[in-house]
Amino acid sequence: MLYEQIGEEVRNYIDQLTKPRGSLGRLEELAIEIAKMTGERFPRVTPPGVLVFAADHGIAKEGVSAYPQEVTTQMVLNFVRGGAAINVFSQQIGAIFAVVDVGVAVDVDEEGVINEKVAYGTKNFAHEQAMTKEEVERAVQAGYRQASAMIDRGIRCLIVGEMGIGNTTTASALLAAMSGRCVAELVGKGTGIHDEAIAHKRAVIERALMLHQPNASDPLDLLTKIGGLEIAAMAGAMLAAAERHVPILLDGFICTVAALIAQRLNEQVVHYMIAGHESVEPGHHVALQLLNKEPLVRLHMRLGEGSGAAVAFPIVHMAMAMLHMATFSSANVSTGSDHHE
Amino acid sequence: MLYEQIGEEVRNYIDQLTKPRGSLGRLEELAIEIAKMTGERFPRVTPPGVLVFAADHGIAKEGVSAYPQEVTTQMVLNFVRGGAAINVFSQQIGAIFAVVDVGVAVDVDEEGVINEKVAYGTKNFAHEQAMTKEEVERAVQAGYRQASAMIDRGIRCLIVGEMGIGNTTTASALLAAMSGRCVAELVGKGTGIHDEAIAHKRAVIERALMLHQPNASDPLDLLTKIGGLEIAAMAGAMLAAAERHVPILLDGFICTVAALIAQRLNEQVVHYMIAGHESVEPGHHVALQLLNKEPLVRLHMRLGEGSGAAVAFPIVHMAMAMLHMATFSSANVSTGSDHHE
C-alpha cells in the first residue's frame, strides 16, 4: 500500500542536498514517510484540511468534566464564527476548515455547521451501552464521507479534531480497554478537573469497564459499549484519508484513541499517520506508544479540537520545503567525508 | 527592562479566551514572555529576520571537520542563490534574509553578501590566539550594526544563524571554558565526523584550553583566545535585538554559545531570548541549561544556519495568533469549574 520504492529514492535524494547527511533529523524522516504515503517525489501537504467532529457524551451526566454539557454546542458555534483556538491556528496554516455535528445533544441550526447528526449524544455508558451498532456504523460513515469530501476539495494533509464535553472520559475508557493498562495510569485532569474529580472519573470508568467487558480487539464492540460518536467519525475520516493516500496528522489524546480504533478497523491506516504532538493527558503517551508513533512536539497542550496537530503542521510543511534545497552538484558545494564512507 | 505589568495583563487576558485554563501550555507562556519583551498586548512577530554570519576558523587546519574549509565560501554563495536549508525555511516563514561575511577566509565578491569582513578567518587557536581584542570588538559591532539594520527594516523577531567550517570546535571550546564541564561531555560529531575524529577534536580543544586558560566570565578574553568572528557578531546582533525589544529566537549549538557570550556582555539580553530547538550536538543541552531555557522543539537536527530556529518559528507565531481567539464572554461560552477556584 505504501510506495516504498519512491520513499527510498527520496531518501537517496535527501543525501544530495546541501547539508550534512542526516543533519535535518526528523524533517528528513518526514519527507521520506510522506513520499511513501503519497507516491510523490516532491510531495505537497498544502492546503491541509481541519475537520472537527462534535458530539455529546451521556457519561457527562456523571460529573466527569469541568464544563457543563452545553459548552459542546457553544463551542460548535464558536468554531463557525472563527473564535476558537483551532480557528486561529487553521487560518495560520492556510487550512480548509469544517465542523461536523455528528451527535451534539441539541439541534444546532447554524449556517456552516455540517449536519451529520447520528443521535442526540450517546447514552450514559455508566449504566447502559453508549450507542447501537447501527449508530456506530453511521458515525464512522459520516466521518468517512466528510473526509472524502475534503479530499475532493483538494486537501493534502488531514487534521481531525473534536469537541465533546466528557470525551476524555470516553477516550480513557476505550484506551483502558484496548491497552489493558490500569485506569489510574491513563486518566488525568482532562480540560481541568481537580484531584477529587479525577478519582471520581477513574472510578466511573472502572465500573463501566466491569459492566460492559468490551472486546479489546473489536472496534464495533468497543464503540457500541463505551464509545463516542465523534470518536467513531474521526476513525472513519482516517480510513478515508489512508485510502486516498493523504497523510493524517494526529492531534491529542482523543484523536490518538480514535486512531487506535481506526487501526482496529484497518491495520493499514496506521502507515498514513504522523503524530503531531504529545499532550499532558497521561493516556496520550500510552496511546502513542501503542501506535508506535513519536510526536513532533511536546508543548504541554491539552485542548483538543485539532489544535496540537495544527501547531505541529508547519514542521511537516518545512520537511516538504527541504526537498527544494539545492544539491551539492547544482550548487557547486564540496561534499564532506560523511559522503565518502 | 521587561514590561512585567503588560505581561501580567496578557496572562489574565489569556484566561478569558475560549479554552480551558492553561490548556495551550507553552504557547500561553510564549505569548506572555513576548508581551513582556515588546510591551505589546497583541505582539506581532512577523516578519521575522534571519541574519546569517559567516566566517572561517583557523582551528579547521587541525582536521576537526568533516568538510574542507572552502565549503564556508561555497555555502555563502548557496545562501545568496537561495539553495540552502535556511533559504527554503526562511521563505516558508516569510522572513527577511541576509548573509553577512564577517570573516570568510577568501574575498567573496557576490551581490547579496553583506561585507563586514573583519579578518580572513581566525588564527588557529591550537597554537595562538584566535584574534586580537580589536577584531573581537569589530565583529561584535558588525553584528550589532546588521541586526539594527534589519530591525530598521521592520523585523519583529530575530533569528541569528551561522556558517563556518570548524565552528562546532570553536563553540565547544568556548562552552567548555564557560561551563567548566569536561570537553568529552560537550563534543559530538558536529556536522558529521566519526568516533576517531571526535576523540581528536576533543584532544585539540583540551590542549587549546590548557594553552590559553581563558577567563570564563570575560567575553572579550574568551573570544580573543578561542573565539570565532561569526560567534562574536552573533552576540553583537543579540545585543541590538534586546536593546530594541525584539525577541531573539535561538538556533542550535553555535548560536546558543553566542547567546552565552552575549549574556556575559550584558546580562539583560537573556530576557529577550527564546530557545528554538535542541540539537543533537551534546553541548547544546548544556548550553541551554546554562541559559536556563527550554527549547520549543527537539527534532534531532544539527545543521545550524538558523535552520532550527526557523523550524520553531511557526510555534511562536501560533502563540501570537492565539491572542486573537474569542473570549468566553464575546462568544457566549460558559466557563468551567476551573474558572471558579
Automatic annotation (TrEMBL), chains A, B:
Family matches, as CDD domains: DMB-PRT_CobT
Organism ancestry: Bacteria, Bacillati, Bacillota, Bacilli, Bacillales
Function summary: Catalyzes the synthesis of alpha-ribazole-5'-phosphate from nicotinate mononucleotide (NAMN) and 5,6-dimethylbenzimidazole (DMB).
Pfam families: DBI_PRT
Top enzyme class: transferase
EC number: 2.4.2.21
Catalyzed reaction equations: 5,6-dimethylbenzimidazole + nicotinate beta-D-ribonucleotide = alpha-ribazole 5'-phosphate + nicotinate + H(+)
Active site, per annotation: E305
Organism: Anoxybacillus pushchinoensis
InterPro entries: Nict_dMeBzImd_PRibTrfase (IPR003200), Nict_dMeBzImd_PRibTrfase_bact (IPR017846), Nict_dMeBzImd_PRibTrfase_N (IPR023195), Nict_dMeBzImd_PRibTrfase_sf (IPR036087)
Membership in a protein family: Belongs to the CobT family.
Protein name: Nicotinate-nucleotide--dimethylbenzimidazole phosphoribosyltransferase
Sorted UniProt keywords: Cobalamin biosynthesis, Glycosyltransferase, Transferase
Superkingdom: Bacteria
GO terms (BP aspect): cobalamin biosynthetic process
Pathway(s): Nucleoside biosynthesis; alpha-ribazole biosynthesis; alpha-ribazole from 5,6-dimethylbenzimidazole: step 1/2
PANTHER family the record matches: NICOTINATE-NUCLEOTIDE--DIMETHYLBENZIMIDAZOLE PHOSPHORIBOSYLTRANSFERASE
NCBIfam families assigned: cobT_DBIPRT, PRK00105.1
GO MF term (any one): nicotinate-nucleotide-dimethylbenzimidazole phosphoribosyltransferase activity
